[in-house]
Amino acid sequence: MGLDGDMRTAFEILQPGTGDIPGEHYLRSTPVTVMWGRLPCQTDAAVLTIASGQTVTIDTVSHEGILEDQGKDPLAYFGAHGVDAASVLEDAVAIAEEMSRDPASAGPHVVTGPIFVEDAEPGDLLKITVERLVPRVPYGVISNRHGKGALAGVLPRSEGTVSVFTPVEDRDAGRVGVLPLRQDGERVVEFPLAPFLGTMGVAVASDERPHSVPPGSHGGNIDINLLTEGSVLYLPVQVTGALAYVGDPHFAQGDGEVALTALEASLRATLRFEVVPRTEALAEFGEVAGPLVRTAEYLVPTGLDPDLNVAMRKCVHAAIELISARWGMDEHLAYAYLSAATDFDISQVVDIVCGIHARIREADFDRAGVRRATRSEDVAGVDRG
């Protein structure tokens, strides 16, 4: 079941260089500017250099439709689902044609970068503000492949049900993804889009490029669906210039991402990259050892580990440390507060390293004010690596 003709007409296909490009810099995804299945490390050369505080519009490309088990031919793959050639992204076609990867040793994700951010040094935080996320096409794919997912060994039951092509349609309340109740049936199930980038990261202080699937202190494939427009991600800088990258664009994802993927589809992302010096970062959040998200309502520390129970404990520790550093709350009282007032959500359970994130309402601490790092015990270790 393909795309409705009216939808093709109404939806602007954001081919490279077309449409609104609001960033101060523009970064296309080409075989020169992307990595496929691996993430940048300290020895990789930047594809773009920017000043702290500048914005970059990045045309991200989804891996769905270009993978080997889909034929590595997006024109043929999406064409079989009724997508005309003009609605298939030219950069996806070029990446599939000109690049290759070893699925046994590399992940599926296409990541764009790295971007060198001037003045970023190890110990600082890189603040990435998500200013705008625009779908480039009116369709995506949800997949459960290679025996992965929360029900590995049970689903999928047949190869024909691995990848689910999912059109996008407009409604008065916004765009929705549409699914049928039965294979090849009428698309009567609708869910709202909430676009975000599943992968946002900085280079590791190593000469080896990390696999793109497991997230870590560098960020990477964190798959936190709170990172929609207006949100902020803080990452500990590990190498000079940060060498930031993004990818794995999603149109929508439930917490857990249980089948293996979200509704995977390409986005045009406009992001602001800012360096937060170490002294300022310590005063604001204390020691940040891994990804930290901020939304209009929440501060969101994370816990990452192959064992979901350990990831949960790490997230609780990170949340207590954040509350203690930011508001000066005693440890046992912070622990009690978290138990009474904070939701701990499963980001995903399908990326080798599981993710937990906590949603701490900043408004709960409005009367407390923010404790600044003025006492000697607060700033001790400011110059630590």
UniProtKB/TrEMBL annotation:
Pfam families: FmdA_AmdA. Signal peptide: none annotated. InterPro entries: FmdA_AmdA. This is Acetamidase/formamidase family protein. It comes from Microbacterium pumilum.
